[in-house]
Amino acid sequence: MREVGKLRAGLIGLGMMGRHHARVLQETEGVELVAVADAYGDPHGVAGGLPFYSGVEELIAHGVDMVMCAVPTGLHEEVGLALAEAGIHTMVEKPIASTIEGGQRLADAFESRGLVGAVGHIERYNPALQSLRARLRKGDLGEVYQIATRRQGPFPSRIADVGVIKDLGTHDIDLTAWLAASEYESVSARTTTRSGREHEDMLAANGQLANGIITSHLVNWLSPMKERMTVVTGERGSFMADTLTADLTFFENGTISTEWDSVANFRGVSEGNVTRLAIAKREPLKVEHEAFRDAVLAARGETRDELAPGTAGIVTMREGLNTLRVAEAMTVSSREARTIRLRD
């Protein structure tokens, strides 16, 4: 292991997410944003005094160690493969690609070259979900029965090339499998299209994971109420994570007996204490980029004493591909009105 200077980072894709990536890359210790690129210009003034290019080949030629790829989903495969061919560690925004075949080619390209290939499933880095996962791993909830998510809000004008399943639903697919440490076994989904666009804009899906946990997901772009909730229910109660506010609340099963016969005869659980848990709240995007930085340093066999090793870890392209497979299965399930099995 040897101490090194800053990693030279590039950014391609300067849209709504690209501008946030630019800010965070410039704030990430041990990383220097050295150039940016976008074929459609720089609408948010991200470049500033940085070299600006129109395409990935020019960005590669500038000389970079790692790249954040925030181009539209349909371009992930083309841009990602060019970066893999050039030997550059890359994180692409979620979903990994627009098709399973494209995602497979990306995952294979980075793995075969020993490169860090990551997917930006940012919800894994939300403080509420980070804390929730740690508590589940410690057994605070006992056996987990169900993971239910609700992700609803108005239509985002920035999305045009995919529907709500791949844009928003992939957040919930990934975080659910990650919280449970188990892949999806089957899904059953229904969708509707109400906004006049090509792709679905509302999803209701149920599923079962390989470890037996059942799942429920409500996702849409048709609600004036913005909601980002994850509820995990188990033998000791329920955890509720609000990823909009990064709040985590524990609803404990009751332990006080009741003398009200009609209630006491119910052989389930009763209400117990409700505790809003105090947790440290760091910006998820910053934690995500620190994890990517640390993965690149590890792949290069390099370290910096002043940088603490990341504890979050990256979302690998293979994991991103598994999430895309579930999303595609939900699409097929909705179209064919049947349950789709992902594991035989």
UniProtKB/TrEMBL annotation:
Taxonomic path: Bacteria, Bacillati, Actinomycetota, Actinomycetes, Micrococcales
Protein name: NADH-dependent dehydrogenase
Superkingdom assignment: Bacteria
Membrane-spanning parts: none
SUPFAM superfamilies, A to Z: Glyceraldehyde-3-phosphate dehydrogenase-like, C-terminal domain, NAD(P)-binding Rossmann-fold domains
InterPro entries, sorted: Gfo/Idh/MocA-like_OxRdtase_N, Gfo/Idh/MocA_Oxidoreductases, GFO_IDH_MocA-like_dom, NAD(P)-bd_dom_sf
Pfam families reported for this sequence: GFO_IDH_MocA, GFO_IDH_MocA_C3
Positions of the Gfo/Idh/MocA-like oxidoreductase N-terminal domain: 8-121
The keyword Magnesium is annotated on this UniProt entry: no
Keyword set, alphabetical order: NAD
UniProt domain GFO/IDH/MocA-like oxidoreductase: residue ranges: 130-239
Keyword NAD tagged: yes
A GO molecular-function descriptor: nucleotide binding
